[in-house]
């Protein structure tokens, strides 16, 4: 009997030796005459346990991790291939029963870490293509309204209702429409887009094809950052497989729908995470923000109506169509419906991916899932929503992960990145970094962002040096107000958020 052993091909796992572990298992099993099939799956998201090895047994997939290449022979001798080795430190038990996994509600990430990412057969056997087939059995307008009814909102950061955007594109008159996926995942502490593309690329392809059918688009583009070479290779391979299966091309699933996908690799500009800058880059121009209106839904790529969504937004659409809107909307709270993929990073004991319904508190994510800091010191601050997100103190750990609750607290959920800092962090330095980052990454099109960020660095330096501290704190506040109200896009408009939250919650670091 062939024993299936799973070793992740995810970039995070490979960076700590997963390739060597996979090779060692295959070689050792052959040397001992054991029939083993090593499957390179995506990561389960428990990054502190990578490389995580899973062995298929009658009781379920038993995990071992982290496993170093030199430990493989000892694990095999202890009975790893039969799921044994309870007395070995790396032995974890059935992976699906681990508290980290059991507490989650994985919808978008249902197959990530479970299947071979480039196996079309495994994709369909685990429910893949059900959403697209269901969509093709409905009218485009019905598909759009299903997405509206689900309450799905943009996972890229803005939280705009996905279905409303699609409805606008559907209603636009044009002989050519596009679907664009923004996979330029540049926020600090975020890696969910990469993990999904490397671990379950077909679900993104399926989601984009559903979007194309719903709005009448015939071409799709995934704008993927150059820092993700493994994701680029995986997605391109998946697109070729999808074409060979008739999931893309001139006649998708025999429905008459003509839709094809292309990958475009960005050069690493943070500003291209903003939708209009991404469109400029896709057109071969410098990544600069466009003034709105017109909105991309009416005049997007090459001036045509365009759906622009994030990876997680599009990858969630298949499960909504497969299970229907009400089932998805049953998760979450208020206007934040469904699940979100939260990413734990920074000074945290257990970093990784947590997909759960909106409404879980920040404290539950940091303490229960994350296990506090990796340094063992008390948590002092957490930044949520990327480098332009607010810094929140532990006193706000009861804040629910909910778009409206965060907005009321002067913060944002953003792309779901959560970066943890312990008591040694200097918050004045972190506020300065926000301005410094903006100065480096600004597209330069508008003055408040281009000049304001530089002046912000200078002002914080004067405050920290004790130079007219009170006067400069007032000046800093005025500068933040100007950038918020006067910037052309969220790059300059949100830079004040981390600065003002740092001053508000950690004033002592500024001498206030």
From TrEMBL:
Keywords tagged on the record: 4Fe-4S, Iron, Iron-sulfur, Metal-binding
Keyword set includes Glycosyltransferase: no
Q: Which domain of life is it from?
A: Bacteria
Q: Which GO terms describe its molecular function?
A: 4 iron, 4 sulfur cluster binding; FMN binding; metal ion binding; NADH dehydrogenase (ubiquinone) activity
Q: Is the keyword Cell membrane in the record?
A: no
Q: Where is the NADH-ubiquinone oxidoreductase 51kDa subunit iron-sulphur binding domain?
A: 428-473
What InterPro entries does this protein's entry cite? NADH-UbQ_OxRdtase_51kDa_CS, Nuo51_FMN-bd, Nuo51_FMN-bd_sf, Nuop51_4Fe4S-bd, Nuop51_4Fe4S-bd_sf, Thioredoxin-like_sf
- Family of the protein in this entry: Belongs to the complex I 51 kDa subunit family.
Protein name listed in UniProt: Formate dehydrogenase beta subunit
Record organism: Kribbella capetownensis
């Amino acid at each position: 009997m062939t024993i299936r052993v799973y070793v992740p091909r995810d970039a995070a796992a490979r960076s700590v030796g997963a390739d060597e572990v996979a090779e060692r298992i295959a070689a050792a099993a052959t040397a001992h005459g054991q029939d083993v099939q090593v499957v390179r799956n995506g990561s389960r998201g428990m990054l502190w346990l990578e490389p995580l090895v899973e062995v298929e047994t009658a009781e379920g997939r038993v995990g071992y991790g982290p496993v170093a290449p030199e430990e493989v022979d000892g694990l095999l001798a202890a009975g790893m291939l039969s799921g044994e080795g309870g007395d070995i430190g790396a032995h974890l038990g059935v992976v699906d029963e681990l508290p980290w996994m059991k507490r989650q509600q994985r919808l978008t990430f249902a197959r990530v870490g479970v299947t071979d990412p480039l196996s079309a057969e495994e994709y369909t056997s685990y429910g893949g293509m059900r959403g697209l087939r269901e969509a093709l059995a409905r009218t485009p307008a019905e598909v759009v309204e299903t997405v509206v009814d689900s309450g799905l909102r943009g996972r890229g950061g803005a939280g705009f209702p996905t279905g409303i955007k699609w409805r606008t594109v559907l209603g636009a008159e044009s002989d050519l429409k596009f679907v664009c996926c923004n996979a330029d995942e540049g926020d600090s502490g975020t890696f969910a887009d990469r993990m999904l593309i490397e671990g379950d690329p077909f679900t993104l392809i399926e989601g984009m094809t559903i979007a194309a059918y719903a709005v009448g688009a015939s071409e799709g583009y995934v704008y993927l950052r150059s820092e993700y070479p493994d994701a680029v290779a995986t997605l391109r391979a998946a697109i070729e497989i999808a074409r060979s299966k008739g999931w893309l091309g001139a006649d998708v699933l025999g429905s008459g729908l003509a839709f094809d996908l292309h990958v475009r690799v960005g050069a690493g500009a943070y500003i291209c995470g903003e939708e209009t800058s991404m469109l400029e880059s896709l057109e071969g121009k410098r990544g600069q923000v466009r003034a709105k209106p017109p909105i991309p839904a009416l005049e997007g790529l090459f001036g045509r109506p365009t759906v622009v969504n994030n990876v997680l937004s599009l990858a969630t659409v298949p499960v909504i169509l497969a299970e229907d809107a009400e089932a998805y909307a049953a998760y979450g709270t208020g206007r934040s419906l469904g699940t979100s993929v939260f990413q734990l990073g920074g000074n945290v004991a257990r970093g990784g991916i947590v997909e759960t319904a909106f409404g879980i508190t920040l404290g539950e994510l940091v303490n229960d899932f994350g296990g506090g800091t990796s340094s063992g010191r008390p948590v002092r601050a957490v930044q949520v929503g990327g480098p332009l997100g607010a810094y929140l103190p532990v006193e706000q750990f009861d804040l629910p992960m909910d778009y409206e609750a965060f907005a009321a607290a002067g913060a944002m959920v953003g792309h779901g990145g959560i970066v943890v800092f312990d008591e040694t962090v200097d918050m004045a330095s972190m506020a300065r970094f926000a301005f410094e980052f903006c100065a480096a990454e600004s597209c330069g099109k508008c003055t408040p962002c281009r000049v304001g960020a530089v002046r912000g660095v200078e002002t914080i330096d004067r405050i920290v040096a004790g130079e007219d501290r009170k006067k400069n704190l007032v000046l800093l506040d005025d500068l933040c107000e100007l950038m918020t109200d006067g910037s052309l896009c969220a790059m300059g408009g949100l830079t004040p958020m981390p600065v003002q939250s740092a001053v508000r919650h950690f004033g002592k670091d500024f001498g206030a």
